[in-house]
Amino acid sequence: MARAALRLGVRALALLVFVSVALLPLVSSDDGYRHCEGVVRGWADASSGRVKDGDKLSLKDLLFFLHIPRTGGRTYFHCFLKKLYTNAQECPRSYDKLRFDPSHPDCKLVVSHDDYSLTSKLPRERTSVVTILRNPVDRVFSTYEFSVEVAARFLVHPNLTSAKLMTTRVLTKSRAVSTLDIWPWKYLVPWMREDLFARRDARGVYKVHSSKKVNAYDVDDMVMPLHRYINDPVAHEIIHNGATFQITGLTNNSYFDGAHEVRHCVRKHPDLGRIVLEVAKNRLDQMLYVGLTEDHEESARLFAHMVGAQVLSQSGTLTLDLKEDLPIETDSHPSMEPEDEETNGHLHTWLAE
Ligand SMILES: *[C@@H]1O[C@H](CO)[C@@H](O)[C@H](O)[C@H]1NC(C)=O
Ligand SMILES: *[C@@H]1O[C@H](CO)[C@@H](O)[C@H](O)[C@H]1NC(C)=O
User: Fold this and answer.
1) Where in the cell is it found (predicted)?
2) For ligand 2, atom 11, which residue shows the shortest CA distance?
């Protein structure tokens, strides 16, 4: 297990890249560089609190599953965490930033797309963090596909106005958490939805395009092509370095006020990204567990040993037979975050209550 953990660890670090958007000269004739360097270094120094090495491998009172979108985290949530923790132990509304209440007395599990800065709301020294990483290219493809998939559900409506209106009505009535409440989908889905309707309006509802050879990533008259999507400022803001920013608490969903300045400095001066990457690596190093989407089976086994066994032993249920094989899908292309229950056909409900 230790060797397996190490192997996964090394690959996890390799996956964590910082995507430099443009190559700037190392020190441009200032251009705010010095200021930015100070900002980023100052943040990095303040972020490098360390835990004793021996300590990080034992499960603390609270488990924070930092769910990076499109890494298969929902499978872990439903197949493992939901089985290990009772409903009462799950912190209420943990995916839902607006209503999330970590002060709930008995809760032991937080699962969220919120970034690492959420730990500032949690009892840090009593919290263990776990996450899953995925090859960034696959993660970006998957993000595109999921944006299209969820947005396309709204096309049952005659026009954008009616789609928006219906959503608001359903959302206020239902108590379920919708994809539209959750970062990053609350930005990515409406953006894609608007674009889908515009393309449909432009081609006219009755002119159904049916070219013989269709490249799913380039169907201009129906969907924003992949290359447009990934080069858009919105994608730059929340997808490209999304995983790295989530682990460092620097997403535009951060609880840390200074996140925006640090993020903007790093985008303006990409070489400062190295500093962010170091912080991210340290964070990963201090987590109880880091899984890899690509190494599904090994990751799941490791999860059972590192997390599952400890949760059970702490809850006094020492019945897990670790030699028994876990039922694991050996699909070479595991389906990420499978279709969920839907409300009224167009809402993607993440958590039933
Ligand atoms: C959108 O569709 C609804 C329902 O069919 C219709 O009442 C409304 O006039 C439409 N709005 C626009 C701007 O076309
Ligand atoms: C986060 O990024 C999206 C996409 O660029 C943007 O629409 C949104 O306003 C940003 N949110 C914050 C809080 O900055």
Assistant:
1) Membrane
2) 252
pTM score, whole prediction? 0.81
The ligand that comes nearest to the alpha carbon of residue 165 is: 1
Does the Cβ of 238 fall within 6 Å of ligand 2?
yes
Distance 141 CA to ligand 2 centre (A): 21
**Nearest-CA neighbor of 18 among 187, 267, 256?**
267
For residue 80, the 8-state DSSP code is I
- Cβ contact 42:262 at 8 Å: no
Instruction: Output the six-digit token pair for 325.
Output: 């094989």
Q: Please, which residues bridge with residue 109 across strands?
A: 63, 90
Q: Is residue 186 part of a domain?
A: no
User: What ligand 1 atom has the least distance to the C-alpha of 158?
Assistant: 2
Whether the CB-CB separation of 17 and 243 falls below 8 Å is answered with: no
Residue by residue, pLDDT tens for the chain (353 residues) are 556 666 666 677 667 766 554 445 555 557 799 999 999 999 999 997 665 656 889 999 999 999 999 999 998 998 999 999 988 888 876 655 555 566 666 789 999 999 999 998 888 888 999 999 999 999 999 999 999 999 999 999 999 999 998 887 777 776 667 788 899 999 999 999 999 999 999 987 655 555 566 788 888 889 999 999 999 999 999 999 999 999 999 999 999 999 999 999 999 999 999 999 999 999 999 999 999 999 999 999 999 999 999 999 988 765 544 444 444 433 333 333 333 333 223 333 332 22
Total number of residues shown for the chain: 353
Asked if residue 327 is part of any domain, the answer here is: yes
When divided into structural domains, the chain yields a total of 1
Counting Cα atoms < 13 Å in the Cβ hemisphere of 261 gives: 15
What's the token pair of residue 277? Answer: 């990457």
Distance 184 CA to ligand 1 centre (A): 29
153 is catalytic: no
| CA 305 to ligand 1 centroid distance, Å | 55
162 lines ligand 1 (CB under 6 A): yes
Any ligand 1 atom below 6 A from CB of 161 = yes
Mutational test site, ligand 2, from 252, 253, 262, 267, max ligand atoms within 8 Å of CB: 252
Structural domain including 321 reads: 2-135+269-336
| Residue 328 covered by a domain | yes
Q: Is the CB of 191 under 6 A from ligand 2?
A: no
